[in-house]
Amino acid sequence: MLQALIIFVAQLIYVPVLTLRTITMVKGMKEKAAALGMLEGVIYVVALGIVFSDLSNYLNMAAYAIGFGVGLYIGQMIEQKLAIGFVTIEVNIMNKNDDLAKHLRDEGFSVSTAEVEGMNHARRFRLDCTARRDREQEFIKIVSTYEPSAFIVSYEPRSFKGGYITKAMKKNRKNKQKNEAAGKAPTPL
After folding, report:
1. Considering the domain 86-178, what is its CATH architecture?
2. At 9, is the secondary structure helix, strand, or coil?
3. What is the mean pLDDT of residues 76-96?
4. Is the separation of the CB atoms in 64 and 72 below 8 Å?
5. What's the CA angle centered on 79, arms 186 and 105, to 5 degrees?
6. Residue 40 and residue 109: Cα distance in Å, rounded?
7. Where are the chain's structural domains?
8. What distance in Å separates the CA atoms of residue 45 and residue 65, rounded to the nearest whole number?
9. Angle between helices 2-26 and 30-53 (to 10 degrees)
10. In this predicted model, what pLDDT tens digit does every residue of 146-187 receive, in sequence order?
11. CB 71, CB 120: distance < 8 Å
12. Buried (b) or exposed (e) across 71-100, using 16+ Cβ within 10 A?
């Protein structure tokens, strides 16, 4: 029974570490991915070693499988809370809404607007924004308040160069360095 508990707890740690390692690897964070990979390897060998030490113990196998499933759930929750990276959001609305664009800009979002052509040559207006992933729901909530029937789509950009967000990142990096030198907390983007 103790072995099954050890296996279950190991999976609860292993799978979220696996999730985070995969995310950091995809995002190009090589050092963090390597460190998480080493931790992942140690946990994996220990848990699997216990399972393989007694293949007739179905409780150990069940603990491994259940721990893996619960670990996936926990890993996904951690990933959503961390919201590492950026998101590009496109919003299509029926009419130009300067108040919405102003509100988004006042909240610190970089917003570009354009008139576009929809089906049957209908005029539509599009707002484009690239923001930190942890602000995506805030953006959508503001848009939904102004435009409840807006079509909103978001995706993660692989890379970007220039523009407002790049300037804000550089400014944030400089502020972080100043704050670290002065012993203060960094300011958000």
Report:
1. 2-Layer Sandwich (3.30)
2. helix
3. 88
4. no
5. 50
6. 37
7. 2-82, 86-178
8. 15
9. 160
10. 999 999 999 988 777 766 665 655 555 555 566 667 765 554
11. no
12. beebbeeebeeeebebbbbebbbeeebeeb
